[in-house]
Amino acid sequence: MLSELKELFIEVFQLVFGYFYHLDKRINIFYLLTSVLLTLFVFYKRKKSQPKPSKNFFQYLFKKENYWSKTAFVDYAFLFFNGFVKITIIASFSYWSRHFQFNITESLLENWGYKPTSLSIPTLSVLYTIALLLIGDFSYYILHWLYHKLPFLWAFHKVHHSSTALNPVTQYRIHPIELIINNLRFAIVITLLNGVFDFLSNGYFGPQTYLGVNVILITFNTLGANLRHSHVKLTYFNWLENWFISPYQHQIHHSSQKELYDKNLGSKLAIWDSLFGTLVKSKDVSKLEVGLGEKTPHYNNFLKNLINPFKALFNSKY
Ligand SMILES: [Zn+2]
Ligand SMILES: [Zn+2]
Known about the structure:
Elements: H1 2-18, H2 29-49, H3 57-61, H4 64-67, H5 70-88, H6 93-112, H7 121-149, H8 151-161, H9 176-200, E1 209-210, E2 213-214, H10 215-222, H11 247-253, H12 258-261, H13 271-276, H14 302-315
Antiparallel strand pairs: 1-2
Helix pairs in contact: 1-5, 6-9, 7-8, 7-9, 8-14
This protein binds zinc ion (2 copies).
């Protein structure tokens, strides 16, 4: 029993430290470095127009409140705690995904027979990557909208919004229940897409990858995805923010004001927010305070974040 527990701990540590060198993880060292370069750009651009504050770049980059504070330690605790959830619960999803993917492909083959398309494998790979971006992003938007609109889901999603100073690890500050639901969403999307594309290509398709990682994910992460959870105000051109969510637009989503935290619900694409009227652009918000605000002070440590959503559920107090 004790040795099994020790093995589990080692597995969790390996998983978490792997985030820093796996290319499909946002906090990979390479993406962190490109984020530092983008921060340098924002810092000097900001300094020109605004000579104050007089802090040097490193003080600006590693703002104490964002990396060494009570709220930051809640993020780090969730990073490790969710490692256990991933290994003990979520790891089994890929088995079930492969199982259902096989069933989907088989039933399509039974109904339509072999060779239903004359599209080449490279064309199918490009189509797959685009379909994954559109369907993946749209399903994320719908689920995120539900997290904000349904009180019992909001109780769990509040954990992500309870950070009062963002840093790249805040992306892991997610309640385990939300983490499981998010992974279920992703597993359903991948299972359906893989099942259909496996059928279309007779089992030969593959996403557009570089070193085994989706090219869209690499591009998104290289262009400062880490700054979405940070104090660095990286905005895009105003017109571009209609198409892609900029890091600052996600920071607006973390605002303590309700009229702002129910906005910018998309992940990579801004088109869903545009379509459904939930888009706010950077130029419209000059000052920002993140967190849940004064009204919800009871999400300020790791245990409270972990337990309070269940309490809220039990008492129907959200
Ligand atoms: Zn949210
Ligand atoms: Zn966030």
